[in-house]
Amino acid sequence: MRRISVTVNGERHEAEVEPRQLLVYFLREELGLTGTVVGCDTSSCGSCTVLLGGESVKSCTLLAVQADGADITTIEGLARDGELHPVQQAFHEEHGLQCGFCTPGMVLATVSLLAESPSPSDGEIRLALEGNLCRCTGYQNIVKAVKAAAV
Amino acid sequence: MAVSEDRVVRGIGHSVKRFEDGRFIRGRGNYVDDIVLPRMLHLEFLRSPLAHARIRSIDTSAAEAVPGVVAVVTGELLAQHSLAWMPTLSGDTQAVLATDKVRFQGQEVAAVIAESAYVAKDATELIDVDYEPLPPVTSPQQALAEGAPVIRDDKEGKDSNHIYSWEAGDAAATEQAFAEADQVVELETFYPRCHPAPLECCGCVADVDPATGKATIYMTSQAPHAHRTLFALVAGLPEHKIRIVSPDIGGGFGNKVPIYPGYVVATAASLLLGQPVKWIEDRTGNLISTGFARDYHMRGELAVKDGRMTGLRVNMLSDNGAFFADAQPTRCKAGLFHIVTGSYDIPAAHVQTEGAYTNKAPGGVAYRCSFRVTEASYLIERLVQTAAYELGEDPVEFRRRNFVRPDQFPYKSATGFTYDSGDYEGALDLALEKLGYADLRREQAEARERGELIGIGVATFTEVVGAGHGAEYDIAGLRMNDGAELRIHPTGKAVLKLSVKSQGQGHETTFAQIVAEELGLQPEDVEVQEGDTDHTPYGLGTYASRSTPVSGAATSMVARKIRKKAQKIAAHLLEASEDDLEWSSGRFSVKGAPEKSTTIQDIAFAAYTNIPEGMEGGLEGVHYYDPPNMTYPFGAYAVVVEIDRGTGQWKVRKVVAVDDCGVRINPMIVEGQIMGGLTEGFAIAAMELIDFDEDGNCIGANLMDYLIPTSWETPAFDLGMTETPSPHHPLGAKGVGESATVGAPAAFVNAVVDALAHAGVRNLEMPVTPDKVWVALQEAGLGG
Ligand code: FES
Ligand code: FES
Fold first, then answer.
1. A86-150: which CATH number, 2.30.40.10, 1.10.150.120, 1.10.287.80, 1.10.260.40?
2. What is the CATH number of domain B32-136+205-289?
3. What are the pLDDT digits (tens) for B716-729?
4. d(CA A91, CA A141)
5. Considering the entire predicted model, what is its pTM?
């Protein structure tokens, strides 16, 4: 077991973890933050996306021990004082989700994209989100949601 | 009670933003893997590395010795409880855990139950299985050849791999049509094996309470009630002691219709150990062992006389894998594949189908398609285009001349369907107009002069959904009827309980709007509950685009029952005769005296506080809907592609999709369904494939090999609509979830073939990958 200290959604956590535990399972099982989900075994789907120091990463590609000292935001930490983040609001308004399984990852990937590129074109959005699969929506409304959140 | 002000009730036709979104966008969905119970154990499978082998022995001792392992379950252990085999949805049997042989790569051989998933996974690697390899059978043609190894030697007296023969239509009349034809056009094509691959894999948490004997199974189920009944039949548990809870589901597309060994083993383990057991499938498990789709080898022949389609002959051979576990109505061995005459008025047709066992995963499901309609639609739409080329005619004009005309509805098809309503030409005209078809054909000709290749593909499909009439359609003996239960609380808020189960379709919004339309409540005043068999009425679930056609109708009907009672209460409140009342948008008023009125909210309150003498209290009801007929959504899709002659890459320039699904309840949700379906249709046409090598190794068992389109590959869609109501559905709705997956693959493939058609190319097999196009370009002398 290894001792780590991480800040998640503004709260500091000290924990003993198995060195091989993936960050996504640490978040889900140790911290109960089940908004971050798992959709594959090959780092292909992006449903486990979180923000690490503000940048999007797939939390199934990191070990929990690698996140020692990191500052992480999960989907649960995005709304502030009950107010939805503009990206969350835009996904709702533009019908950018159906089953919702990809949504936390999509929303966080979008937050990260807009931090880098505040008003991306359709093509830039489609390229930037290509690490996040959605099986339900066909992406068109996701692109619309990203644009709506950007303005 | 305050009388509410006049307002617009946001019922049918309103794009109400979805109520279910709130929890999903906050990460507060409740998917099966989010469920954690006290003392819960974890299950992991050991899967077969071989496609076909006899099991000589299984040694579990090393796995059992791992700290944290609670039990190792083998087929032999299950056999002691008569649970080693289970019935399938097609009346066959399927191994829960292999006992005698393994019959496909990835088959479940043993299960480790441990205190954590990591430990369980470790321990599976310590199970020692001694296999005696057997020759694998990897195609249905090979399976049916003389001397092929018999896969299902577990079945008493079974000496071949043949599963079923099934036919529809009139063979003699079809012969006659071919004998009299001017021309006969053929197409042989293969709709390859693909996989629904919802983003959430399958899983369950089984919790059998040793004190009460009650089994609560949280599982990824598109059909919780049917599954409960099947569980009762498989495990011999009394049905009222089984509660299936289907929580939020991360996409289904048919993949979550069958019963899988994971559910059964987890339940058996929980029963034996007295602790909850969680099974969460990984992606490889999902792709390698659960409900695949398609795998139909098809041959179609079209007889044409004077430019009219006069006969259709279809032969189909299906690859069903090691167990015949297709999810489909009992009497239809190839699902609704016999809808293969599509949108065309073909007086004679005959469909002959055969199925074969192979050493591949079982569980043929309809990946976002109503029981094999997709294969049928693909075949006819590809065949019609081929025929048009052979006749030297524009594929669009050939279609137009042969459509079932609006005045022919209800139309009886040559294979026995009665189409409810349609205007195929209307949808086609709109699609062509949006596309700019005539200009594009000119541009295509000019481009060819310059040596550039553009293709225009069209598909004008007809679907058949909303199964179905109880006398004709059942799943494992259960009539395909669904219930809706509606209760109006005293303060005018309602709860609607349904037998179906959303996997992303937005039922919590759409069905609330149906109640809103019928009773004049606002949709946000209606809570929709689904998925818990202890608390919802019986029914067969959500697949085959049946929720709106069947449960939507049930919802309307139950709301109308309630409105009848509300009218009696209103008469009492207004001191008027029932017959003197008229209804409009949530209010009864006295005819000719509109100031004398009462709202549905006032009536609801009265139902619990002030009812006429002799009336039963409360304001609630239940209705089980038996659809009088199927519904027949249709549409016209058109795709434009550009081909790179040097590489064979094809790029989608434009996609136009005109859908007619009858009355649209929530247009925003309907369009969302269509775009999702178009994407999956594109995926199948372009990239998705579950393939096997000659040893039966599955190629495509993870998301690096099984290619799901990303936002980058997926084209933009231009949608259009026409509206031809279903005459027999109470709301005129037809269902839409799968239309786009049914229509789209042929449109994309037709477009790529069209680009090469002038050089004689007639067919390309899906997935139409650049290498296949490149070869076709070379062969046709079009290589760049
Ligand atoms: S779970 Fe698929 S990328 Fe992390
Ligand atoms: S909404 Fe279902 S996977 Fe994206």
1. 1.10.150.120
2. 3.90.1170.50
3. 999 999 999 999 99
4. 8
5. 0.97
